[in-house]
Specification:
The complex is a heterodimer of chains A (about 120) and B (about 110). Chain A is an all-beta fold. Chain A is built from no helices and eleven strands. In chain A, the strands form two sheets. In chain A, strands 2, 4, 5, 6, 9, 10 and 11 form a seven-stranded mixed beta sheet that branches. A four-stranded antiparallel beta sheet of chain A has the order 1-3-8-7, with no helix packed on it. The termini of chain A are far apart. Chain B has about 110 residues and is mainly beta. The N and C termini of chain B lie far apart (about 40 Å). Chain B contains no helices and twelve strands. Classes of the chains: A mainly beta (about 120), B mainly beta (about 110).
């Protein structure tokens, strides 16, 4: 069966410090990968998605970047954190028909999340 | 663009009460519709989904029917338990992207 891991679970960082959050998926190949952010009291916002190694699409302009160095590894980074970067970051995966092809109704499965507090 | 609107919470119920959470969407074409649940301190779990009009998704006693004529996907459960206390998110999917509602916090009291 497939599992998705995120770490760390909780992180407190000062403003201006760098960030690296990691997400890995096991039990599947060539998944689509996603980073979402959930701000306090709000729904989820898609930040990045990736259909393959080295292929990253950004949904919203922001202080963050993403990379996919391996098939089942997705990293969210920042060079200098802002207060507004605080939130709950969720990684997700889905299994599609192939690179760039999105299957109608295919489910996205979420990891346990990383709670980030920037002070 | 696509959007999802959920009834605002919080919702507080007694055990065995009937729960309904309204969800309406705005989208062109035929998106897929989902309900996700987030238990305290955890990530999101898929609760149920429907991929075409008139489909009914169901799981753990929860049901929702994809109504294209009213652009709705209301979540219902006939008899809630304390363990159903969570935040519920309605979402639609087009291509790669899930668009979420703001979430509805449900608290069930014994």
């Amino acid at each position: 069966s497939q599992t998705i891991h995120q770490w760390p679970a909780t992180l407190v960082q000062p403003v201006g410090s760098p960030l690296s959050l990691e997400c890995t998926v096991e039990g599947t190949s060539n998944p689509n990968l996603y980073w979402y952010r959930q701000a306090a009291g709000r729904g989820l916002q898609l930040l990045f998605y990736s259909v393959g190694i080295g292929q990253i699409s950004s949904e919203v302009p922001q202080n963050l970047s993403a990379s996919r160095p391996q098939d089942r590894q997705f990293i969210l980074s920042s060079k200098k954190l802002l207060l507004s970067d605080s939130g709950f970051y969720l990684c997700a995966w889905s299994l599609e028909g192939g690179q760039g092809y999105f299957t109608l109704g295919e489910t996205q499965y979420f990891g346990p999340g990383t709670r980030l507090l920037v002070l | 663009g696509d959007s999802v609107t959920q009834m605002e919470g919080p919702v507080t119920l007694s055990e065995e009460a009937f729960l309904t959470i309204n969800c309406t969407y705005t989208a062109t074409g035929y998106p897929s519709l989902f309900w996700y649940v987030q238990y305290p301190g955890e990530g999101l779990q898929l609760l149920l989904k429907a991929t075409k009009a008139d489909d009914k998704g169901s799981n753990k006693g929860f049901e929702a029917t994809y109504r294209k004529e009213t652009t709705s996907f209301h979540l219902e459960k006939g008899s809630v338990q304390v363990s159903d206390s969570a935040v519920y998110f309605c979402a639609l999917r087009r291509d790669y992207k899930l668009s979420f509602g703001a979430g509805t916090t449900v608290t069930v009291r014994a």
